[in-house]
Write a structure and sequence with these properties.
This protein is an alpha/beta fold. Helices cover about 45% and strands about 10% of the residues. The protein contains 40 helices and 26 strands. The strands form 5 sheets. The protein has a 9-stranded mixed beta sheet, with helices on both faces. It has a 7-stranded parallel beta sheet with strand order 13-14-12-15-16-11-17, with helices on both faces. A 6-stranded mixed beta sheet has the order 1-4-5-6-7-8, sandwiched between helices. Helix 19 (about 490-515) crosses helix 20 and helix 26 crosses helix 29. It is globular and about 105 Å long.
């Protein structure tokens, strides 16, 4: 028997065996026909609780509270799941009668994992709004905590993920997921991915452990790792996070980072956790802090950072995760809080540890060491971005003030040699590392693509500049002239800066017109300026472009009149400070300060929020130092650097663009106007620029471990384009010769008259649509620079033709299958490609029906217009034309069948008859087209010609067609529905029942009520 591409059933049998034989789970059986499957199986849970000493009264009370939390119809799935988790983790407080002490009923034994009962069941039929059947469900003590959807090795894991997401919708079996903690999807070819309730497909995770073990299927390997009894219980207890409306599970590196830190904490040892930018250091902080506070009753934690922005972010992260945290507001407040027992968790700026204007710092440290502060409890200090805060004097102040504290540093970058001594002195060695290349490989962050751009700054006439300078400084003596020249150089920078900045602005505005994501308004950008003055200048220049109203300057400058009180020179020109003041004064003119904030803070907070939430409305932020650390905006795709930067600051800045976002964000793009990355290293034929070289501390790593590689835009762009084109060619490889339109339709759609054929080939079509979108973005990325990327003229022409070919093919298949996909994500890329690269005669048909369904074209303009708009290869093939139109009619009938079953059943029979006549050649082509056009008009109109005028709504007409054309009965039922229906009645059993009772009073037949109510429920008029 051929073992290749074996069925899903074979995989499922093997997985069930693994759970039962290797992991020790008990098999509950195949529950496909069990009528009362639940996420809380009472027999198993009652048995467990009884065995643990609870009496029946306590068990009943606990079960009642658990059921209420899991099925609270007033809340959504997230909140129900959160309430259930609280009961699982902390137990259910019950009191069986007045005057009796409250007892906590623990549903899971967290301290002794093996003492719990672990079960597995398969084909668990769940009856919700619509019936669904998860492949495998995992239970602990009878409570469903995991769902696994399996696919055969030829079907993408993505299908299993999407199936899980559909099942979580309230109109399916969403209520079943109120107890679920792990949501798995897997197959034998791709392995396993996991998430939890509400996890979007793009954020499903892969576990990574013992990579050298290649002895079996990765699916089995990682199910065994995650679902081993002790590991599963540990993950559920210590690593589940409800973070501001999103439930999260740990990535593998976060789990192992926390585990390593726990070992250090037990030994009262500090150390450094180096997890690269964007990989979730804040979550590691939260998980570690929760563990320390829960396991050490004397522990207290202070989280320290060096930026107000980060201090606010840390506070927000902990509060969103449900952890009470106190944010100190002064140095005195910090020391006061540390000197008392509570709060146990607080955050502070590192500067609050120090004093200003200290002449003899060493004497100050000696004084602190002789009189150390008294901190209550066992103090653990988390220092965020520790590479920055520990390279100066402040670390000595912290150690002197808090000599008994354990310091744990967090950094997103490897240490430089110059930081090593102070960092080791304060923290110790690395606790755990997760490096940039690992994060990119794991898909945790995006790869970075680099492009240097040179803006010519040469002056047209140095002589004229010197003459101007001499004229302007005529009244100065030689010393004063020398000082002025010393400040401004030859004046070239002054006079060329605006011209140069104009070019940068034009450059960036051009990118917003043509670059992937910027042009589609899905992504946005940050521009790093050298100073607040230049940031303001840039802001003013952008006000004369299409980005006016969609860009902001974020520098924290707050205009005060004293800033310019001595700036006026009377020369009818503005000094730098005056430019800054007037710019801010104008942009803050209409801003009303929010409580507790300055006008600047109010303005900047609004701009940042729009940048994250509404990238189309806030396209560009102009910054100097702010937002270059700790600011996470998934939409941010381009970083323009016009400031000299180096080392940690540079790497943190460029990592603003490496956050995951929608599928069309493939890379983070760095555009460098300062030539910061001068050393180009070619590895394996691809360009890469090392951010860190000889300055790194390599003592604990090999050189390759510390390399932060940035891909050259052209080489990476070529690789992307070649791979995207190859993927599409492979996808279409199995299409039968001569590979025309009809052959492609048959391959991607099957027989378009048979819905099962279309469904069976849905995966191929989805792959085609995604691969075409990917090709468009790849082509747009380097379309202007293909010769520079190394393509020959013939190859460029070939690629252009293939792009055009696949654009047309996608539209042919889209229309043949009647699948109108959302083009917004790449319509600008398409428009750019068509306008710039593809000649008019080659691209007449890019979207044949302008995204209008074929039936609408027939109704509005006639069948000739619909056929005429089709690609030449289609309209020349009568069979292909017929199949496309027939499939669109069939799809419309199926989609609208429930609206009016009788009418659309009749339409379906008419369609079958027309198809039969066509295939038997009983109609000539013109007769066929006339008949199918007439039918299309009837299907879209959804109204027989003989409908009485009193039936003036779609709902009344639908009832008329399904009630024996009894006009009086229709009007009577319509009135009953209108009188009994309440707002938001759909999905509310009580309100639906009111309508059903009103109908019953008229027809007096339960089955007839159900039939009529099914039609009523579909009508938008009600």
């Amino acid at each position: 028997m051929d073992d290749i591409g074996k069925s899903e059933r074979v995989t499922q049998n093997r997985v069930v065996k693994l759970f039962c034989e290797q992991l020790g789970y008990r098999y509950l059986g195949n529950l496909e026909d069990k009528p009362d499957n639940s996420n809380i199986e009472l027999p198993q849970l009652t048995r467990y609780l009884t065995a643990n000493g609870y009496d029946q009264s306590q068990i009943n009370k606990a079960l009642d509270k658990l059921h209420s939390a899991a099925n609270n119809h007033a809340q959504n799935l997230y909140h129900n799941n959160k309430d259930v988790y609280q009961l699982l983790r902390y137990g259910v407080p019950v009191r069986t009668e007045a005057g009796v002490l409250t007892v906590t009923v623990h549903l899971i034994d967290w301290r002794h994992p093996e003492q719990n009962d672990f079960y597995i069941a398969e084909e668990v039929t769940v009856f919700g709004e619509k019936e669904k059947r998860p492949d495998i469900v995992l239970y602990v003590n009878g409570i469903a905590i995991g769902v696994l959807e399996l696919k055969n090795s030829r079907v993408s894991i993505g299908d299993g993920i999407r199936q899980n997401l559909v099942n979580q919708q309230p109109e399916f079996i969403g209520a079943f997921f109120s107890t679920i903690q792990f949501v798995f999807a897997g197959n034998d070819s791709e392995g396993l991915q996991y998430g939890t309730i509400g996890t979007q497909e793009k954020f499903f995770l892969k576990w990574k452990e013992d990579e050298a073990d290649n002895s079996g299927y990765k699916l089995d390997k990682y199910l065994a790792k995650i679902c081993a009894k002790q590991r599963l219980i540990e993950l559920l207890y210590d690593f589940v996070l409800f973070d501001g409306g999103i439930k999260k599970l740990p990535r593998a590196h976060q789990y192992f980072g926390v585990k390593a830190a726990q070992a250090h904490v037990r030994r009262k040892e500090g150390g450094i956790i180096w997890h690269t930018q964007g990989s979730g250091k804040s979550i590691v902080m939260v998980l570690l802090a929760k563990w320390i506070l829960e396991n050490n009753p004397h522990a207290r934690i202070a989280i320290v950072t060096d930026r107000d922005e980060l201090d606010k972010q840390i506070e927000s992260v902990f509060r969103d995760a449900g952890e009470a945290i106190y944010r100190t507001h002064s140095g005195r407040d910090l020391m006061t809080q540390l000197g008392q027992a509570k709060p146990r968790l607080l955050c502070s700026l590192v500067h609050k540890f120090g004093k200003r204007d200290i002449d003899d710092f060493d004497a100050f440290i000696e004084q602190l060491q002789s009189q150390p502060s008294y901190a209550v409890g066992e103090l653990f200090i988390f220092v965020d971005e520790c590479h920055r805060t520990q390279s100066g004097k402040l670390h000595r102040t912290m150690k002197a003030l808090l000599p008994g504290a354990v310091f744990i540093g967090f950094t997103g970058t490897p240490l430089l040699k110059k930081d090593k001594a102070t960092s080791l002195e304060v923290f110790g060695k690395y606790i755990h590392t997760y490096k940039f290349n690992e994060a990119v490989e794991d898909g945790v962050v995006l790869d970075l693509v680099y492009e240097a751009r040179d803006i010519d700054q040469r002056l047209s006439s140095q002589q004229k500049i010197d003459e101007w300078f001499a004229a302007k400084t005529k009244g100065l003596n030689d010393f004063q002239k020398a000082e002025l020249k010393k400040k401004w150089g030859t004046m070239q920078n002054v006079l060329s800066s605006k011209s140069r900045m104009d070019k940068v602005v034009t450059d960036i505005v051009g990118d917003f017109s043509v670059k992937p994501r910027l042009s589609t308004q899905m992504g946005n950008a940050i521009l790093v300026a050298s100073s607040i003055f230049e940031a303001c200048r840039y802001y003013e220049l952008f006000q004369a472009t299409e980005l006016k109203g969609k860009c902001a300057v974020v520098t924290s400058y707050n205009p005060q009149t004293r800033d310019i009180s001595t700036e006026e020179t009377g020369a009818n020109t503005e000094t730098d400070k005056q430019v800054i003041y007037s710019t801010y004064d104008a942009l803050l003119k209409d801003v009303s300060a929010e409580p507790g904030k300055s006008k600047t803070e109010t303005y900047e907070d609004k701009a940042k929020k729009m940048f994250v939430d509404e990238p189309a409305n806030m396209k560009l932020l102009i910054v100097v130092d702010k937002l270059l650390t700790g600011f996470d905006a998934p939409s941010c795709t381009y970083l323009y650097i016009d400031k000299s930067m180096q080392d940690h600051g540079l790497f943190q800045a460029i990592c603003r663009v490496n956050r995951l976002d929608s599928e069309d964000k493939k890379f983070g793009f760095i555009v460098d106007y300062k030539d910061l990355f001068k050393k180009l290293v070619n590895e394996k034929g691809t360009g890469a620029i090392q951010v860190y070289t000889e300055e790194l501390d390599y003592d604990q790593f090999e050189t390759k471990d510390c390399d932060i590689l940035i891909q050259d835009r052209l080489s990476k762009g070529r690789e992307w384009l070649d791979n995207a084109l190859e993927a599409l060619e492979l996808l279409c490889e199995k299409v039968e010769p001569p590979k025309g339109d009809l052959e492609h339709i048959h391959y991607f759609c099957g027989n378009t008259e048979i819905p099962e054929d279309l469904k069976a080939r849905e995966v191929q079509r989805t792959a085609l649509y995604k691969a075409t979108a990917n090709l468009l973005r790849a082509y747009a990325n380097i379309g202007d620079d293909m010769d520079a990327a190394g393509y020959s003229a013939d190859t460029i022409e070939h690629i252009r033709n293939r792009v055009n070919h696949f654009l047309k093919l996608r539209d042919v298949i889209k229309n043949a299958s009647n699948e109108k996909i959302d083009l917004k994500a790449y319509e600008a890329d398409m428009r750019y490609l068509i306008d710039r690269y593809i000649q008019a005669e080659e691209s007449v048909v890019i979207s044949p029906f302008a995204d209008m369904p074929i039936l609408q074209v027939i109704v509005k303009s006639g069948i000739a217009e619909a056929i005429g708009a089709m690609p030449d290869g289609i309209k020349a093939n009568k069979e292909a034309v017929a199949e496309i139109i027939e499939n669109n009619v069939r799809s419309h009938i199926i989609k609208n069948h429930l609206l009016d079953p009788a009418y659309f059943e009749k339409m379906s029979k008419l369609l079958d008859e027309i198809i039969k006549q066509r295939k038997q050649n009983a109609l000539n082509y013109q007769e066929y087209l006339q008949k199918i056009a007439d039918l299309a008009n009837k299907v879209v109109a959804a109204q027989p010609n003989d409908t009485p005028k009193s039936l003036n709504t779609q709902a009344k007409r639908a009832l008329y067609n399904n009630l024996g054309k009894n006009e009086a009965l229709v009007l009577q039922i319509n009135d009953a529905v209108m009188d009994s229906k309440q707002d938001n009645w759909r999905g509310n059993p009580a309100r639906e029942s009111d309508i059903q009772q009103a109908i019953f009073k008229i027809v007096n037949d339960v089955e007839e009520v159900e039939r009529i109510f099914a039609i009523v429920k579909q009508q938008s008029d009600y």
